[in-house]
Amino acid sequence: MNSFFHAKQLKKGICLLLTIGTAFAANAQQGLSTRESSLKGQAGSVSRAPSGQQLPEQDAERLHSRMHLGLLYPLSTNGRQAPMYSNDFSFHLLMGLSKAENAFVLSGVSTVIREQAAGLQFAGVSNYVGKQTKGMQFAGVYNHTGDQLQGIQFGGVMNYAGDADGLQFAGVMNKARDVNGSQFAGVVNVAKKVKGLQFAGIINIADSSDYPVAILNFIKNGEKSIGISTDETFNLLASFRSGGRVLYGILEIGYNLKSEGDLYALGAGLGAHFAFSDRFRLNTELKSLVLDDFHEGEYSKYSLHILPALKVSERIEVFAGPSLNFVDSDMQEGKDLFKDPLWENGYGDGHLRQWYVGASAGIQFIL
């Protein structure tokens, strides 16, 4: 009997809880519907919506904030509407997200701007702009401008811009489509058409670039050649020259024929073409050359070459001309290579420095 009574009481309690819960849910739903109706009615007259609410398109276009502060999205003063806001000044401890930035943005790690940015961008790791940048991007690792850069990018590792009207500086790599300005990279620059200077530690790549400065330059409308040459100390050198219509890079490898011992040569340099006609031009080159026997001592030569060049056919060119040379060596074989310098000075532990006038000549095959 008692068991039956307790079961009956439990059943009544459950029914009561269900009734209260249903009433509470219905009341909450009614309140939410009323709030949504109120927001829809006010949407045309406000520029900031509560976090989590969807704004009509015309209001999203007007969202603007003088100051945007945050930790990372969506923990910021613009909340979940941050991707639709245009801001004048933004400061983020970790990551910032916005539609546009008008003056200044600073992020500890990364900044993501969906459309355009003006002014200054600073980020510990990366800056990303979906469309256009007018100003400067500074990032510890990577800068990205999707469509057009009008300004300067400084990237610790890499910069990318659709079309660049300005400068790109990167520790490793710059990449862009058309560049009306210059690229400076520690390793490689990549572009299509460059109106300006390309300066890289190793490689420049472009469809068109008249002024590439690197050891290797792969320019589609430029010039590449392989050649053989010798100089006043009988260094026999095989060379690869590559560049644009004006500037080019030089890479050389060879062997010294004068020394009694084995001296192997490795050289690099930069050159410039000055064309006077289709067949005759003047090539000026700044080169460095190292001779090494792989045992001990060192020999370094730095030279300025003035080389008149004549095309004897469409792809064969001969050249010869004087050079001004500076040598620093502590190898006896190196000291014996040239005996009549303009100036000579011994220093340190057996080192010898020389200035002298020499000459070089060779032939190259234009690829």
Automatic annotation (TrEMBL):
The keyword Signal applies. Residues 36-58 are annotated as: Disordered. Residues 36-56 have a biased composition (Polar residues). Keywords: Signal. The keyword Signal applies. Residues 1-25 form the signal peptide. This is Uncharacterized protein.
